[in-house]
Amino acid sequence: MKARGLFMAIGVALLCATVGAQQPPQGPGRGGQPPAPTGPHIYIRAGLKTHGPGQHDYPQFLADWSKVLTERNAVVSGSLHFPTAQELEGVDVMVMYKGDAGGMTPEEKTVLENFLKRGGGLVSFHDTLCGPDPAYYSTILGGAKKHGEVNYTLDANVPYTVVDKSNPIMEGMEGMSIRDEAFYLMTWAQSPKIHVLATAKIDDTPSAKQAGHAGEEVPQIWTYENTLPGGKPYRAFVWMQGHEYSNFTDLRIEPMLLKGIAWAANKPYDALMTVRSAPQRGGGRAGGQ
Questions:
Q1: pLDDT in tens, 75-98
Q2: Could you tell me if residue 7 is inside a domain?
Q3: CATH of residue 265
Q4: DSSP code, position 281
């Protein structure tokens, strides 16, 4: 067991080192190098893997999306631990993909609330919105799920119904369905309430039937704007799916996530939609100039 623990610790250290190494040069573009990034500063809060192959792969998300976002001109940092106040300095939005992230120490709550009070944005994927105190956590994300309750469909159809068709985040999402997991029995914030982007009909799974929620329409994608006492307004974007890690690479889903992250960072919707050019070889300039 000691050897296994040492192996996991080494793996985590290597992953975090990789995230740091992926950052583009911070100086001006010289010698064919790309210029310093001008996009949002994003912190990815991930965690250790909790499920079987292809599911809840939080460390893989940290590695993959550090690259996805860096290629789109973002400044990216992240870790498998709850960030310190120093790590969140200058961060525009924290993207969270970590099981039961609502379970925080009093010190972690203070760090999060201070980040939100200065206008920092928040993005939550899948069971990130789960925790021991959904009444509190729903005031942070707009909706929260109680840890330990059977309030999920597991392997199920998630057919989206786009509620706000005019919102740029939902472009191209009309009429699509994925295989993933949906939650019900949610605790919802009441003042202010969430802005629903898409709902899904809860699939007829054994757990949903037993709970009497099969066929119910439940919000699965939403935005939330709130202001904590003494702070500035902040934005949160939530996508309830992500049980199946492959859905992050769905070409219909990825643009929606990129636009949701940009919105939560208080940037234009298309701020992360363009992959920047590869650095030019040989130190020359485009067009032979």
A1: 999 999 999 999 999 999 999 999
A2: no
A3: 3.40.50.880
A4: G
Q: Give the whole-angstrom CA distance, residue 18 versus residue 60.
A: 12
pTM of the model: 0.85
Could you list the residue range(s) of the whole structural domain that residue 112 is in?
38-272
Within a 13 Å sphere around the CA of 173, how many CA atoms are in the beta-carbon half? 28
Please choose, from the candidates 248, 212, 252, 286, the residue with its C-alpha nearest in 3D space to the C-alpha of residue 67: 248
Would residue 172 count as lying in a domain? yes
Range 205-208, long-range pairs (CB < 8 A, 24+ positions):
205/153, 205/154, 205/155, 205/156, 207/150, 207/152, 207/153, 207/154, 208/153, 208/156, 208/184
Length of the chain: 289
Domain count for the chain, please give it: 1
Q: Where are the alpha helices (DSSP H) in 26-79?
A: 58-70
Does residue 277 lie in a domain region?
no
Residue 74 inside a domain? The answer is yes
